[in-house]
Amino acid sequence: MSNNITLSLDDVKTLSLSVLTQNGYSETHAAAITDVIYACQLDDCHSHGLFRLFMCVDTMQGGQVDGHALPTITEPGPSVVKADANKGISLLALNEAMPRLVEKAKTQGMAALAINNCFHFSALWPEVEMLSQQGLVGIAMVPSHAWVAPAGGTRGTLGTNPLAFSWPRLEKDPFTFDFATSQFARGEIELYRRAGKPLPEGVAIDKNGKPTTDPEAAMEGAMLTFGGYKGSALSIMIELMAGPLIDDLTSLESIAAADGNTGAPYHGEIILAMNPEMLSGGKVAQNDERAERLFADIIDQGARLPSQRRYQARARNLERNALEIPAQLYQDILKLKG
Amino acid sequence: MSNNITLSLDDVKTLSLSVLTQNGYSETHAAAITDVIYACQLDDCHSHGLFRLFMCVDTMQGGQVDGHALPTITEPGPSVVKADANKGISLLALNEAMPRLVEKAKTQGMAALAINNCFHFSALWPEVEMLSQQGLVGIAMVPSHAWVAPAGGTRGTLGTNPLAFSWPRLEKDPFTFDFATSQFARGEIELYRRAGKPLPEGVAIDKNGKPTTDPEAAMEGAMLTFGGYKGSALSIMIELMAGPLIDDLTSLESIAAADGNTGAPYHGEIILAMNPEMLSGGKVAQNDERAERLFADIIDQGARLPSQRRYQARARNLERNALEIPAQLYQDILKLKG
């Protein structure tokens, strides 16, 4: 007996498109959002797949997002693209700016894309994998809301500030990671709360800045970064690069701007793209072999490369042209339709 | 009673220059190396100050470094500078390429410098602070030798792989960090071994891949990364970006190339530079204020910004035009002179 239902891959897209267009998003926004929701669901990445439709609807109900906003793309320098999302979800701006980022990285060797004034709810790995699909190396960073304390601190200042990286492999799926710089994702703490289970040590502090394993106290207090003062420094780097560097909000400013609304946070994003052809002096094949020897040495000792479970799920789901989601999730999504 | 001796700032430079020129380094190499040794010693950063003269001499005695190598600088793309150190210490190549990196970042918005075929012994913060002194944001990465196991692994594959970042502040010393992605620096384990003290848990594994707190067993086994699988992923990113991306060695290849020699490892380095003027659309002052509000919120809760102790030491030592080093270190350095 399974509590899952099977959807064809087309059904996933149709379901996402219809929920979004019936909840205030234009056809173009719905298509851009569906691209990423579909990519995540195809990889059995449930937390960022169809489940995110609830956040998209919640964000619309908050009344701050513009579901019909048209992005404005500018090029303030030969290696810089800026995409102003004009208060839309980030993904339409991303899609429109991505070809220019790719072209700049290919011709200049290195380029940056800054997305501004966007609501952002999505995983970052689909964004850096757009670059590795083009033979480029990609790095992406976003702030979020000030839920995470700096090392040695007592309250939320930093976002969960994910960092994503993708490296193109000539014969294989890319080497990709995408992790929050908080020790836990915010949703994980919520799962512990619902299950009535204590958190591990070192994940959170209470509202007085004292260590806590109580999920309720953690939600009222602050989360901690991974890796102590080093993870905290990395998180501050992400705040600076995806915030003030590109003239956009810090996680402190983003949570203030939300004014109590839940839903996707409003802020900026930075994506860097590097061209191995130019940086290696034309020796891409030799250096692909060099990287493969590194990966082989990691795998040979029983360690795992990140994202491999996703790639296995992707291959399996593409093969059968269908995927499974929890039946209850499906029922709940149907209720989002008008 | 102090075991320190006082040196004038000029004495520090003169001592470094004379040791280096008497041990096989040309005047220009000795000057480039001394710049960084002096910068570190001025900040009371003892591990990377005059103490590193021993490593410079050790590297020369290994017979692989060219103390007179002249770097070759090329520009394979509008946003890429490549500096071939031609088997010299990295720092002369760095100094010669840095003005081109700065100019490219200022005119293009974003640029990368790849240093190739270099011996590298130095802290990375002086390199990224060269960029923040110019109003640019800097990131630097290097591999090292394969002493560090990936998360879930049993042997050394990765280097200690430091990551350095510097953010220019309009009115203050920059926000800078420079940390190894290994949990401990290799020298720290050596200090525990000499002191006969057990290591903390989670720092190292023995030669069979089992957790150990015995420093001796750790030196025969492998170190662990900070922050578990996230720190491990970050370390792999640094291997890829400072290795195969720029056509240079991984930490596995670097330790093999050393052929048992101690001294500075031989590999490459990547430095990224970003121009806030262009990325912020000309709003540097407003975004400096925004970053300062973030820093103020961190400090206000009793947390510390990295590098503050260095800046305090720098101010103190510049004020008195002198600094202190252990008397024994001074005696040992004098023995390096011919």
UniProtKB/TrEMBL annotation, chains A, B:
<comment type="similarity">
    <text>Belongs to the LDH2/MDH2 oxidoreductase family.</text>
</comment>
<dbReference type="InterPro" id="IPR036111">
    <property type="entry name" value="Mal/L-sulfo/L-lacto_DH-like_sf"/>
</dbReference>
<dbReference type="GO" id="GO:0016491">
    <property type="term" value="F:oxidoreductase activity"/>
</dbReference>
<keyword id="KW-0560">Oxidoreductase</keyword>
<dbReference type="Pfam" id="PF02615">
    <property type="entry name" value="Ldh_2"/>
</dbReference>
<dbReference type="InterPro" id="IPR003767">
    <property type="entry name" value="Malate/L-lactate_DH-like"/>
</dbReference>
<protein>
    <submittedName>
        <fullName>Oxidoreductase</fullName>
    </submittedName>
</protein>
<dbReference type="InterPro" id="IPR043143">
    <property type="entry name" value="Mal/L-sulf/L-lact_DH-like_NADP"/>
</dbReference>
<dbReference type="InterPro" id="IPR043144">
    <property type="entry name" value="Mal/L-sulf/L-lact_DH-like_ah"/>
</dbReference>
